[in-house]
Amino acid sequence: MDNMVDHAIILNPIAGKGKKATGSIEDAKKYLDELNVSYKIFETEYAQHAIELASQCAKDGYRVIAAGGDGTHNETLHGVITSKTGALCGFIPIGSGNDIPGAIGIKPDVKRACEIIAEGKSSKSDIGLAVTDAGVERYFLGIGSQGFDAEVARRANLPGASKNYNSIVMKSLFSWKSKELKITMDNDVYEGMVNLTAVGNGPTYGGWMYVCQKARVNDGIFHISVVDIGKLKLLFQFKRMYKAKLLPHPDVHEYTSKKVRIEMKNPEEPEPYYCQVDGEILGNLPISYECIKDGYEFIRPEIDEVAEAFKEKYGRYFYECEE
Question: Which of 114, 283, 306, 323: CA 20 to 30 A from 94?
């Protein structure tokens, strides 16, 4: 570690170049320089490279900052947590999807994100741990999901895929067929047809879609939305999620649980659902989730600035459901 440098920025060099990007690394560098923040940039070169870089930078004594979209954000936080160093982790949202920083109250505003880093305040947040039966493990801040939304995430991660989430949703919808799941929670078991099941540590995915709008990263529990809605109605509900108007809904079953186990009801199902966390595909079901109360410390604002911005725009907090 350079003794004159405090922060390692894990940068996805592709981020910040799309039409929906919230800013660029050049913007971030300008703001950080003005704020007298010392940093060194480490660019990712391949899938999951951010995990390796973040882990090494944490071991080298840096505060580790992810600069990119949610793929980079998740890989970075996973790398820092698994380094077992306790190094602080933060985010600069310059991608098209910035739900992970949003989960801990960081708005999609590059200048403000840099100010938060300069302020240096931190606090603990709940985190999720997902483990597939195939042995894949991943920590996450936002949402773990399986079913239709995971299929959308899978397509979004394909080489050359469109970054327009709504476009991918439309293309995925035509060929989609719902299947039966078995979902085992602390005090409940659900068995039946499911479009998607979202396990929320944070409230949003897909670029600020509030599918688990009651989820907060300080309550020590997952908020789970089990959705069984027809194709066309599902498309309409996706639009309602952006304004946190999904819940309550007669075809969305809501649960809370610290642990969740999700599997196909038919163990011999030849095409089990994909599962993903924070937009990162982990493979196929079965999968187990655990919510870890105050699981890790992140560089973040003292108040939830995302919740406050939502209230200013809509006159209510996103976690306050309209009856």
Answer: 283
Q: Are 150 and 207 in contact (CB under 8 A)?
A: no
CA distances from 299 to 75, 84, 288 (A): 16, 17, 28
* Region 218-244 average pLDDT: 87
Domain 130-293 belongs in CATH node 2.60.200.40 = yes
Q: What is the largest CA-CA distance in the chain?
A: 59
Query: What are the residue boundaries of the structural domains of the chain, listed by start?
Result: 7-120, 130-293
Burial zone of 6 (CB within 10 Å; 0-12 exposed, 13-18 middle, 19+ buried): middle
84's tokens = 């077992």
- Say which CATH superfamily domain 7-120 falls into: Probable inorganic polyphosphate/atp-NAD kinase; domain 1 (3.40.50.10330)
* Contact predicate 22/110, CB 8 Å: yes
Residue 2 three-state SS: coil
